[in-house]
Amino acid sequence: MNQATTTSPMMTSQSISRQPAPKRRTHWASRAWSGLVVGLMTFFLINVGLMIASVATNSVAKRWLGTWLPSGWTLEWYSAAWQEFQLGDVLLVTIQVVLSVVVLSILIGVPAAYTLARRNFRGKKLLTGLFLLPLMIPPITYGIPLATLMYELHLAGTLPGVIIANLLPALPFVILVMTPFIEQIDPNLESAARVFGARTFTMFRHVLVPLLAPGILAASLLVLVRTIAMFELTFLTAGADTQTLVVALYYSVFAAGVRASQSIDAMAMVYMIVTLIWLLIAMRFVSPTQLVSRVKEHPQN
Amino acid sequence: MMLMSSQTAGSRWRDPAMWMAAPAVIFMLAVFVYPFIHGLILSFQPLEGGMLSNYIKFFSTDNLWMTIGVTLKLALPATLINILIAVPVAYRLRHKTPYQKIATTILVIPITLGTVLIAEGMLTYFGPKGWFAQILQTLHIYEGAIRLTHNYAGVVISLVISGFPFAFLLILSYITGIDPVLPRAAATLGATPFNQFRYVIFPLILPGLAMAFCLSFVQAFSVFPSAVLLGSPAGATRVISIAAYEAAFENYDYSMASAVAMIMGAVQLGVVVIVLGARNLFYRGPVTGGKG
């Protein structure tokens, strides 16, 4: 870059007057650059879109071998998948696990986030580190010792076992999302409640929870989407009748050959649609730009 | 607030707000710390041999210690690609417009796909008779056989598809967290868009980038389903999580499995330390900026 375009704060009036020429050039360059970025993204999205479309096409195809489009259409595979994979049971387990994880992680996580947001104490950094660590190491690393322990305690394969395992990454996630949400709430509101004699728990229920409702909703939806997609921990701890959708799907592909690829694809579509619905709901309530604790600079409006 | 933080240690035990963290702490100790320590001790109690024999076995068996390199060779490029693509895209979408909302939603959709659908989709789409091959052949761009599945490339592509939305969301939230007044001030002083990014935005998002790299890397590093379904789990994509799983659930050697899990965690934390350390090495200055 030449001199006229440096960011030096001691820019003279002379160099400002020289601006137009380089500006036109960078204008051209930045256009080319953004064209490249948009082009790359379009290429990425087109391929991903076609990839989804080929799964969708295959799931409604009678026979599809090496042609542009299948020779016939049918919805049989969806009902076949429903029966073959006992999708009803799998969905029931998935709903039970996901709802329990969401409710428990909010009930346990929000009060802990409150402590981290409002109190300073010795060992606070250590505590924050403890909550951050499960997000920084791969699930298999702590999943295998946890599963080993669960097998010893005969917890593995049971519904509570699967729920506990899935709660492990969900809880720190809630705490990390909720802490900045609580920090942005004016502490004077709490003091006011205390002046009127509210004890901590009354204050929490009647003052903080209503104010935190948008944040709690956001956190629960994100936990929900993450838990539906959580493969490793469920895979390590689930038994034959406690599989969630994502694990059942993995087994059906892993044992490929036994099953028609169309019915696997039908199941994959069911999985995608379930997750997509929740994600779109989540995106309506949470701006994706708030995912990382910069809530303070972005007052909601 | 101020009063409370100046309370003495003794009265802190009677502060109900301190006790509100108790259930979370107990849960973390019971479900995270205790099993982890249990696993660590278990890894030093092998089925046969001395205390360290699991670790000696891991580093002296070719198809075990090689898995570290295989995993890193998959996870590092995939994470780098994700971050390097996500930065310019997020930078372009930093302004709050209706366009930003729509584009963000579309870019985030691959999060919902799940590794299995991506694997199935790639096997169909990139397969020898899939649409991708057919399009290339129809347009006469490339006529040869396309090998993008059941190998290294297949796993990297699937890691990019599944990891990009996450990296993008993180970086977008870091970039939008920067006060827009700062680049505008630079522009007033004559900085080109490139220089605004280079001297204002980039230093401010660097800590965020390091964090995003670590969090994306964790996901790529624990690659398991796609390495099995899309790669060649016996060869080029035999990642460390496959080795750990085999030890635990095929050989029922929980002690060895714990050892592999510990090695996996150590390598992961090593990368995190290097990345965060490199950040301090390359950039010294106010890292907590962005508050304007």
What does this protein structure show overall?
The complex is a heterodimer of chains A (301) and B (292). Chain A has 301 residues and is mainly alpha-helical. Chain A folds into two domains: 3-59, no CATH class; 77-297, MetI-like fold (Orthogonal Bundle), CATH 1.10.3720.10. Chain A is 72% helix and 0% strand. In chain A, helix 5 packs across helix 7 (159-183) and helix 7 (159-183) crosses helix 9 (200-229). Chain A is globular and about 75 Å long. Chain B is mostly helical. In chain B, helix 6 (62-92) runs antiparallel to helix 12 and helix 8 crosses helix 10. Chain B is globular and about 70 Å long. Classes of the chains: A mainly alpha (301), B mainly alpha (292).
Brief sketch in words of this structure:
Chain A is mainly alpha-helical and 301 residues long.
Show the helix and strand layout:
The complex is a heterodimer of chains A (301) and B (292).
Chain A: H1 13-17, H2 20-59, H3 76-84, H4 87-118, H5 124-136, H6 139-152, H7 159-183, H8 187-195, H9 200-229, H10 232-237, H11 245-254, H12 261-285
Helix pairs in contact in A: 2-12, 3-12, 4-7, 4-9, 5-7, 7-9, 8-9, 9-12, 11-12
Chain B: H1 2-5, H2 9-12, H3 16-19, H4 22-43, H5 53-60, H6 62-92, H7 98-108, H8 114-125, H9 131-138, H10 152-176, H11 181-188, H12 193-221, H13 225-229, H14 240-249, H15 254-282
Helix pairs in contact in B: 4-15, 6-10, 6-12, 8-10, 10-12, 11-12, 12-15, 14-15
